[in-house]
């Protein structure tokens, strides 16, 4: 089988496409990339459709060996990319020859992010399960074996003909600060949080705890308890902010459960979740309130800007 052989799998490397949709009624969450912008740009730099399968690399340490001539791109966190020991740029198309060793470093610097995306020309050829190849380890679904990449795995992909080398201009590359502001759309359960608790929530700083993963980010900071301990379990949206009995918010991410019974103060505006996903434990967060109509307008604007984004030819 042609493709890339995993020499070292890194801390957490997962195959992801754009996500698994329309399956929550049977208990399957959507998965997909935690940083959709970096994921999309990795594919575009490889001349792929935006939803092609790529590798999401958390923290770093992935090493691959290629058996095909092709092209790759690494975007997202500043992990460092080397081909046969030679440094290569991120946010740019890079030519690969059969026998080349692709090494990705670790997130060791502040303000450098913690998740990167490796795409290959044509995408990785991974069988879909329930309409997607996205890996959700909690559900043992997607990817090669329903979990993270392992040493000696083969990531199948085809050889590629000549492609134009592309790059995303540096001024358009995102920053990954260790302190972020997240916009929140308050939900119908807001009335279970007193005006004082809401004021505390929007005026305080929270810290990402060690309990942060693709399922959710548990925060540490001032308590914002609701006036009820729980609700009848209901569907949960991406970015929902649950508040359990200890009063410490939990922001639910791509691999969240499909239903839950904790009260929710609101939901993080979806495009802001990428900033959260690039935070490691210890990252600092402030919240601001966002009107639902403003959210619709901002979402349309973000989608338009992404569709009009131009890549430079090298």
Explain this structure.
By secondary structure, the protein is of the alpha+beta class. The chain folds into two domains: 166 residues, no CATH class; 129 residues, Cyclophilin (Beta Barrel). 13% of the residues lie in helices and 31% in strands. It is built from four helices and 22 strands. The strands form five sheets. The chain has a seven-stranded mixed β-barrel with strand order 13-20-17-18-15-14-21. The protein has a six-stranded antiparallel β-sheet with strand order 7-6-9-4-1-11, with no helix packed on it. Strands 2-3-10-5-8 form a five-stranded antiparallel β-sheet, with helices on one face. A hairpin with a 2-residue loop joins strand 6 and strand 7. The protein is globular. The mean pLDDT is 96.
